[in-house]
From TrEMBL:
Its biological purpose: Phosphorylation of dTMP to form dTDP in both de novo and salvage pathways of dTTP synthesis.
Stretches assigned to coiled coil: none
Catalytic activity: dTMP + ATP = dTDP + ADP
Family: Belongs to the thymidylate kinase family.
Protein name (Swiss-Prot/TrEMBL): Thymidylate kinase
Organism domain of life: Bacteria
Keywords (A to Z) from UniProt: ATP-binding, Kinase, Nucleotide biosynthesis, Nucleotide-binding, Transferase
Length: 214
């Protein structure tokens, strides 16, 4: 059964780790799973990701940032998400349209109507069936994120990590407001808990959705 599940949250909340754990669990249960991410997920979108996350591009203005996210998403949806769902796969995506609302809407204070219109165009109306929001204190998330960046070879994708604490607090608050508006789609899970406890909570929520009970 096709199902589109997204993972959201501030920097360092544990999305990538938890998505990897869930993918293995779902595959063990016999599901066909596609894992992907935004920005990125396919060659063209990955090139745009390089621009968006490179700290050297600090002069990137908010509107240009928003348009680059929309361009990457349009390519990603057409090339990865839509085909996978069409073949009945479970698609797990690390960030999607809610990230744009949280970061460029609440974080950058860009116009919500403009963001909604671009998201609708880029996704051709595709929306997540379930969104896992991993919530944790900003300080905890940024500490984890910088530790990961400092231990990873290659390009330092840290343009957002270097934003002010107030920016990250606006993003976190934005995510929580989005979740409060759509409680039927969002499941908010403590991202500061242990990896195993967090994974168990996510698995419960996802299996309930896949069985039709969620």
């Amino acid at each position: 059964m096709a199902c589109f599940i997204t993972f959201e949250g501030i920097e360092g909340c544990g999305k990538t780790t938890q998505m990897r754990i869930l993918a293995k669990r779902l595959e063990a249960l016999g599901n066909s799973v596609t894992t992907t991410r935004e920005p990125g997920g396919c060659p063209i979108a990955d090139k745009i990701r390089g621009i968006l996350l490179d700290a050297e591009n600090s002069a990137l203005v908010p509107l240009a940032e928003l348009l680059l996210y929309a361009a990457a998403r349009a390519q990603h949806v057409a090339e990865v998400v839509t085909p996978a769902l069409a073949t009945g796969r479970v698609v797990l995506c690390d960030r999607f349209t809610d990230a744009t609302l949280a970061y460029q809407g609440y974080g950058r204070a860009l116009d919500r109507e403009t963001i909604d219109r671009l998201n609708e165009m880029a996704t051709t109306g595709i929306r997540p069936d379930l969104t896992i929001l991993l919530d944790c204190p900003v300080e905890t998330g940024l500490e984890r994120a910088m530790a990961r960046i400092n231990s990873t070879a290659g390009a330092r994708e840290e343009r957002f990590e270097l934003e002010t604490m107030e920016f990250h607090r606006r993003v976190r608050d934005g995510y929580l407001q989005l979740a409060a508006r759509e409680p039927e789609r969002f499941v908010v899970i403590d991202g500061a808990a242990g990896v195993e406890d967090t994974a168990a909570a996510i698995e419960t929520a996802v299996l309930a959705k896949l069985s039709g009970r969620g």
